[in-house]
Amino acid sequence: MNTLIKQTLAASILSTMIAGTAMAAPAEAPPDFIKRVADGLISSLKDDHAKLQNNPAAVKAIVRQKLDPHIDSQAFTRTVMGTYAQSSSPAQRAQFEKNFRETLIENYGSAFAKYSNQTYSIRPYRKTESKNPVVTIDFINKGEKIPVAFQLADKGSQWKIRNINVSGIDLGLQFRNQFAATVKRNGNNLDKAIANFKPDAEAAVEKK
Q1: Quick check: helix, strand or coil at residue 188?
Q2: Please, is 199 exposed, middle or buried when counting C-beta atoms within 10 Å of its C-beta (0-12, 13-18, 19+)?
Q3: What is the model's pTM?
Q4: Which of 6, 8, 170, 197 is 20 to 30 A removed from 135 (C-alpha atoms)?
Q5: Is 18 inside a domain boundary?
Q6: From which residue to which does the signal peptide run (predicted)?
């Protein structure tokens, strides 16, 4: 194959890859994505607020439906497992992800169950070419602003939430510390640690 043909072929392949990447990029702007997710969740909680106060199962069902599909649980798993992700087996990581998703739903479910017509505003967003843009929401609760920053992951055709920062506290990092402590409490037995790990978002946010 002569040089000209090789160059032409290489250019063709490269342009195809670039075009494919561009076409696969999320069509929705990051703040629009976060607003859609937040509005969908808050709207459902407002509609049945009275019924949800003493019905944690119903809250969990709403959170699972409205929030869970938008979480990049694989990224969360890698972040929270930390160095243990490298030494774990695929089966262990899969089990960790399954348990972690369920306990996250419980965490967020109990938090959102207290929602009583609070409002929120999205901070001005500075457009970036990063694959992991951050969108920050200020939740207003009884006059107090609670900033919640969502770090997103570009999954090609859609955005996913890969980490959350509440009032300056990196939940992924705090959960990682909690998991490391769980591993030690279980004698460095990873299977036991995975089975017993219960991430505590409230404790993580309060740790300043």
Answers
A1: coil
A2: buried
A3: 0.79
A4: 197
A5: no
A6: 1-24
Q: CA nearest 207: which of 176, 182, 186, 185?
A: 176
- Residues 15-58: pLDDT tens digits? 333 333 344 578 899 999 999 998 888 888 777 777 777 787 88
* Residue 39 domain-assigned (yes or no): yes
How far, in Å, CA of 121 to CA of 20, rounded?
35
Is 152 inside a domain boundary? yes
- Domain with 120, as residue range(s), is 26-206
Long-range contacts of 119-126 (CB under 8 A, 24+ apart): 120/38, 120/42, 122/31, 122/34, 122/35, 123/147, 125/29, 125/30, 125/31
Q: Which helix (H) or strand (E) holds 131?
A: none
* Dist. CA 131–CA 135, nearest whole Å: 13
DSSP states of 145-185: EEEEEEEEEE-SSSEEEEEEEETTEEHHHHHHHHHHHHHHH
Find tokens 């890698």 and name the residue. 78
Q: What is the CATH number of the domain that holds 81?
A: 3.10.450.710
Q: How many domains does the chain have?
A: 1
Which pLDDT belongs to residue 140? 83
- Residue 142: left if φ>0, alpha if ψ -120 to 50, beta else—which one? left
pLDDT tens-digit map of 118-137: 688 999 998 888 889 999 99
Residues 87, 185: Cα–Cα separation, whole Å:
18
DSSP secondary structure letter of residue 142: T
Q: Which residue has the tokens 């219960």?
A: 198
In a domain, 139, yes or no: yes
